[in-house]
Design brief:
With about 200 residues, this protein is an all-alpha fold. The chain has two domains: about 30-155, no CATH class; about 155-185. It is about 80% helix and about 0% strand. The protein is built from seven helices and no strands. Helix 2 packs antiparallel against helix 3. The protein is rod-shaped.
Length: about 200
């Protein structure tokens, strides 16, 4: 029969083994947590469709800008870090528009500061200049048209009546002159016939 001292020894050993088991379990749990932290998280899926590429036409910029801003605001995490977002905006431009923002691309590469808003600022400046030029041409065209219309309408009712009366008078005079010419021609024909008849009787 085991003595009291032996029982105490067994109990102590069991406690030590239980502590070792708890340590092993804790170490495994810590390892699992570390592996989860090191494992790359999958990117969220984009929610909005890709905007249509900006082709450089000023009137399309007004609708393209809110679309690209909404895309970056909603799906920025899905697109990636600032470098990815910069190139996303750059690649969302037609090739000839990309040429307009090459200075911004070069500066971003040199400074290693990728801010897509520098591209939008450059495009906004060019777009506003195009709008101003278009508005100026449209204003000049409207002024020229209005001036021509004023020239056409610079006649009061008296002038119109006077012109109409003058035209009718000229037309009447012309008709009278033509009638006079016909009468004279008829008299000349009769005169020649009379002369011819007199000459025949004389012979």
């Amino acid at each position: 029969m085991a003595t009291l001292e032996q029982l105490r020894t067994v109990v102590l050993e069991l406690r030590q083994e239980a502590q070792r088991q708890r340590d092993v379990i804790q170490a495994q749990q810590d390892e699992i947590v570390l592996l989860k932290q090191l494992r790359p998280q999958p990117r969220p899926k984009p929610s909005l469709p890709d905007p249509e590429k900006f082709n450089g036409q000023a009137y399309k910029y007004d609708t393209w800008l809110p679309s690209i801003q909404a895309k970056l605001r909603v799906d920025g995490e899905a697109i990636g870090d600032p470098t990815a977002q910069f190139y996303y905006v750059y690649l969302n431009l037609d090739s000839h528009v990309q040429a307009m923002v090459l200075p911004q691309l070069s500066r971003a590469e040199d400074d290693d500061k990728w801010d897509y808003r520098t591209i939008l600022k450059q495009l906004a400046g060019r777009s506003s200049g195009t709008h101003s030029s278009h508005d100026h041409v449209s204003s000049s065209t409207r002024q020229s048209y209005d001036h021509k219309q004023d020239d056409k309408m610079d006649l009061n009712p008296v002038d119109v009546n006077t012109i109409s009366f003058s035209q009718r008078a000229d037309s009447s005079s012309s008709a009278k002159r033509q009638m006079g010419h016909r009468v004279i021609a008829a008299i000349d024909d009769d005169w020649e016939d009379d002369l011819s008849g007199s000459t025949s009787i004389g012979l």
